Write the structure tokens for this entry.
Amino acid sequence: MSRPVGNRPRRAAYALISVGVASAFAITSLPAAYATPSATAVISEVYGGGGNSGATLTRDFVELGNAGSAAYDLAGYSVQYLPGAPSASSLWQVTALNGSVAPGGRFLVAEAAGTGGSTALPTADATGSVAMSATSGTIALVSGTTALTCKTAADCAADGRIVDLVGYGSALVREGSGPATGASNTAAVARSAALGDTDDNAADLSAATPSPVNSAGQTPGSGDGGGDGGDGGGDPTTPGTVRVHDVQGTTRLSPLAGQTVTRVPGIVTGVRTTGSKGYWIQDPAADADSRTSEGVFVYTGSATPTVGVGDSVLVSGKVSEYYPSSTSQSVTELTAPTATVLSSGNALPTAVTVDATSVPAAYLPTAGGGSIEAAALEPAVYAQDFYESTEGMRVAFSDARVVGASDAYGELWVTVKPDENATARGGTLYSSYDQPNTGRLEVMSLDTTTSFPTADVGDELSGTTTGPLDYSTYGGYNVQATQLGTLVDNGLKPEVTRRQKGDELAVATYNVENLDALDAQEKIDRLAHGVAVNLNSPDVVALEEIQDDNGATNDGTVTSEATLKRFTDAIRAAGGPRYQWRYIAPTDNQDGGEPGGNIRQVFLFNPKRVSFTDRAGGDAVTATSVVKTRKGAKLTASPGRIDPASDAWDNSRKPLVGEFVFHGETVFVIANHFTSKGGDQPLHGRYQPPSRSSETQRQAQAAEVNTFVKSLLAADRNAKTVVLGDLNDYEFSRTVTTLTDGKVLKPLITTLPAAERYTYVYDGNSQTLDHILTSPAVTHYDYDVVHINAEFSDQASDHDPQVVRIDVGRCRRG
């Protein structure tokens, strides 16, 4: 289930280009058995359609059975779920168990609830939050709670921790000849009453009407299904027995998920009338447990809420966990609500202060890459646990610095920790995987009558900002402001770098964000001004994200002549030189990016300052290579591509290599645009530490470039080489470590003071994605990141350019 938050439509997270590294896992051989066929504990029934369209039951479940004559102890055990066709980034999701299965008895594990259905499960013996597929997946009963790592039937068969395993639908991981078939929104897969187990899922389980039974022998309707939902009987204007903190619980998941609760009392603290409509209520009578939030979101769907801030209400509805994305944390909500307004104009509960004192320094607990949802919150230890323990409650911060500029969706980022990794220009630096910045909060506004402030990094929201704390996939925890502080403009200005001297070769890189000939003149002029004025007309500019001449029109066009003509004309009009260009057109739709856009790297160069060595033979599929001559190294094709047939460049941009001559000296320039971070799990998500699956392909790409640079240096150890572009990874990443292997390249970003090492701002983190690296022969240089975009609400691109000025003559002399 997905829905917009506030006024924001769904959009791609992180870089604009999403190139996944998806690879299906094939079964190389079928296992004979998982341990041995069990005569005791087995998985007796699996149902993933709970709450889906057509379903009667409100949530997914796994039922265990015991065919033995003695109780089967489940202490320290777990049930685990894997998608039916696991990808490289798929993880087993774990639900811990306790208790035992009686001889001949059943044990019920409740999993994620949907929004449909009308019948609750009987009281579960264990509860998880796994959103199982209705039609295809794998469930394992495991002796232990550490997530499994196997992703093929053969590998799982070799894991002695697996007591029993059921693959259903089209699951690749299963027992025996094939998976159990027939699972759907309305059908489970189940064993016969005898619980026979031959280690062949297709033979042992078949489609059946979902019939969950718990350890007490209760079935849907025979048990309390979670009680009376806090009804308590009595007057409909009298609160029920359930309070908001009972709904929220002490973990990230509600212990009442899937159940209907009745007449939950609270004061309305905020109302959202656009996008994901609803309102927040908060109980002013807090309990003594710091882990339990007193606020909750009431989701009204497409219906505009009829309550107002300050109303005292009693709300009845179903407790649901809404997941904004597949890897995000969830938001505990009351759905399908009915409300009774008891009174209006009530004082609002006191807001929780969010500042450097209240927010812990540690970011999140870890679970070996698994879900942290079932772990008890530690709000005094972890920042994200602190935020989760106040989810839905009124929070307040004062005099906060803006660390992420306002965007088109009416959002900005602040830090409530003014001293946390401050950059030189007012942002917050992201400097390592191990120390995410804990003071960042996204800010949105619930006030639809007032325009959202236009803020740049370094500005300030002066005074107090107050509102309910929410969570979304776009950045995690955010304040839905009912009161915004006053914007103080601290006057951040775009930078202008110095002009290169006569004997300095200036080489720059600039990601121009999907530029094509159909773009508005304003965009082209602003990007051109960046080159001519802010970068001060470098001699060579490596451009990333130049599209073909008709942009996203998917008609086979691959040339960029019209795009580059318009762009270079605009640079000239802005006072820059008359640049010439070189590029290699990609094969249609083979380089990733926007379908039909055919983005590529391009060299611009000023022929009055530097010459380009044209050497025929380069095209989209032909690799350039290095030849050793008496005068040093040279390319077989210039411009050329680095090994375009390599798997490292599948559905991704291929590096562009060019040979330039400046003051009689040859300089090799390699322009790059590595694959994006699309598909990586978020910093704030439920899986910790998050998987960075996209890094695998970037490491392979970095290795290709590193090998090519080594071939240049093998032909001429004094070869002057500049490697640059949008690497889509950090200076502390394995991508950059791989690229520099053997000390053949030096990342110039590391030569700057730490507070200046960034080229991009994402979710309030100032970070480095764009790089310039140089070979050992480049000994005399001056390097500068030129901040003109990333920190500003009004951007020509989302990346900042950078430039290195090389004193080629002094490099020659050593």
In short: The chain has nine helices and 41 strands. The first strand starts at residue 41 and ends at 47. The radius of gyration is 30 Å.
